[in-house]
């Protein structure tokens, strides 16, 4: 019997491998020509200096597309074999060496095709693409009814100040949105009233640093899955709706630098998962600090600076031991600083009480804030002996309190031109350090504190 020649065997193996590769490649459908042409049109609008059709193959774009252009393969409901290919992600603008998206140029524009040709698009991302404010880029009218309205999950436009147009042009009729980040753009107008009706699965809504205005619609309260709501640095005004308290999954609420007024709504007490609250630099006023903060034990940062809240600092700190940062600068506070802040806020990193009308002494209990990085008490009417030195706890800002003094053994050092105290230090009331009203439980706390003062040199051992 004749045997195959070795070269004949090799030829058969090569032929079989080639046929297998052809079969496999045939199983992966090609991108529709119209969709492929739309990709090149969009790429050319983002950076016309690059010859995109020369750099990337025209026949099978899905297999070797630019980094920010992503394809996916789709099958019929009753089959596992892919039957079509579609663009599912478009990301433009350099982010890092690990995400080399197609770079934008100074003449970047938006081709209207991007809103009509990609019905399967899940992510649309532009980072620092439209930055030349002398060459403004307007959102096209076709964006009002985008073809991907039922597929889009992420809409991200970051630091594109030359991109202008109404917010309603970008946010309308989406049913599967999970994340919206529109930060640092020229987008204007109001939040669409029906946003909460269409995007009930939305988890992040960040609209910071735009030109947005008007009230916050109550329909946002329907976004039950929302975890981040950031409307900071815009021109929003009016009262905050009580219904925002229905956003029970919320972790971050940032409304900094707007024109909100009236009372901080008590409905926010229902945000039991909230960790970050920033309502700074609005016009909330004349109702004092909200007492319901004591009912939000997961809070880690609370910032209310720049609102004319008025009133005294309430005794609400017992349940807020996990707070890391408190900003109450320029809020019209009067009266004394509660000693309980020093007793309970043991994890505090930052405390801002500057530019108020606080008076009395700085509580000696503040010497226990060993983890704090900055305490700002500037421009108040505080007086008496300072219970800590610049060496304890980090940065201290105390200017504008001419009646404050420092112990002569410590010296003012970097504390500014504080005068030296002439009176003897006062030992604090033991009850302030007790774990309960039981005086027997208070004794160990007093001994620890006295030992602490000995170490600081404030009293003789």
TrEMBL record:
SMART domains, per database record: LRR_TYP
Cell compartments where the protein resides: Cell membrane
Signal peptide interval: 1-27
Coiled coil region boundaries: none
Main subcellular location: membrane
Record-linked InterPro entries: Leu-rich_rpt, Leu-rich_rpt_typical-subtyp, LRR_dom_sf, StomDev_PlantInt_Reg
Gene3D superfamilies: Ribonuclease Inhibitor
GO cellular component: plasma membrane
Protein keywords: Cell membrane, Leucine-rich repeat, Membrane, Repeat, Signal, Transmembrane, Transmembrane helix
Alphabetical list of Pfam families matching this protein: LRR_1, LRR_8
Signal among keywords: yes
Chain segments annotated as transmembrane: 440-459
UniProt name for this protein: Leucine-rich repeat-containing N-terminal plant-type domain-containing protein
Organism: Carpinus fangiana
């Amino acid at each position: 019997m004749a045997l195959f020649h070795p070269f004949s065997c090799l030829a058969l193996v090569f032929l079989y491998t080639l046929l297998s590769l052809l079969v496999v490649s045939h199983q992966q459908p090609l991108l529709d020509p119209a969709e492929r042409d739309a990709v090149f049109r969009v790429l050319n609008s983002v950076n016309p200096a690059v010859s995109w059709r020369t750099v990337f193959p025209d026949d099978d774009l899905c297999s070797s597309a630019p980094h920010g252009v992503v394809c996916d393969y789709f099958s019929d409901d009753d089959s596992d074999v892919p039957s079509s290919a579609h663009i599912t992600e478009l990301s433009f603008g350099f982010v890092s060496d690990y995400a080399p998206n197609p770079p934008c140029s100074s003449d970047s524009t938006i081709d209207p095709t991007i809103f009509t040709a990609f019905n399967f698009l899940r992510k649309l991302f532009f980072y620092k693409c439209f930055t030349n404010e002398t060459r403004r880029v307007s959102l096209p009218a076709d964006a009002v009814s985008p073809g991907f309205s039922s597929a889009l999950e992420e809409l991200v436009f970051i630091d594109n100040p030359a991109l202008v147009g109404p917010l309603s042009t970008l946010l309308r009729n989406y049913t599967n949105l999970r994340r919206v980040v529109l930060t640092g753009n020229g987008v204007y107008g109001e939040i669409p009233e029906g946003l909460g009706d269409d995007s009930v699965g939305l988890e992040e809504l960040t609209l910071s640093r735009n030109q947005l205005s008007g009230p916050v619609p109550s329909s946002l309260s329907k976004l039950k899955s929302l975890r981040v709501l950031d409307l900071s640095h815009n021109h929003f005004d009016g009262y905050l709706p009580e219904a925002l308290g229905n956003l029970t999954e919320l972790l971050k609420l940032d409304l900094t630098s707007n024109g909100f007024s009236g009372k901080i709504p008590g409905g926010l007490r229902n945000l039991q998962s909230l960790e970050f609250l920033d309502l700074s630099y609005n016009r909330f006023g004349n109702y004092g600090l909200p007492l319901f903060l004591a009912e939000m034990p997961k809070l880690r940062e609370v910032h209310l600076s720049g609102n004319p809240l008025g009133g005294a600092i309430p005794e609400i700190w017992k349940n807020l031991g996990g707070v890391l940062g408190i900003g109450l600068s320029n809020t019209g506070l009067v009266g004394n600083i509660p000693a309980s802040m020093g007793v309970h806020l043991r994890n505090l990193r930052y405390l801002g009480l500057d530019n108020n009308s606080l008076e009395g002494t700085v509580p000696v209990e503040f010497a226990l804030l060993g983890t704090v990085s900055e305490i700002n008490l500037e421009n108040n009417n505080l007086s008496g002996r300072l219970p800590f030195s610049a060496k304890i706890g980090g940065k201290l800002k105390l200017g504008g309190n001419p009646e404050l003094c420092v112990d002569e053994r410590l010296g003012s050092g970097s504390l500014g031109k504080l005068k030296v105290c002439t009176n003897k230090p006062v030992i604090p009331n033991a009850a302030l350090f007790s774990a309960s009203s039981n005086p027997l439980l208070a004794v160990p706390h007093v001994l620890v504190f006295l030992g602490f003062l000995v170490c600081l040199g404030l009293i003789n051992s």
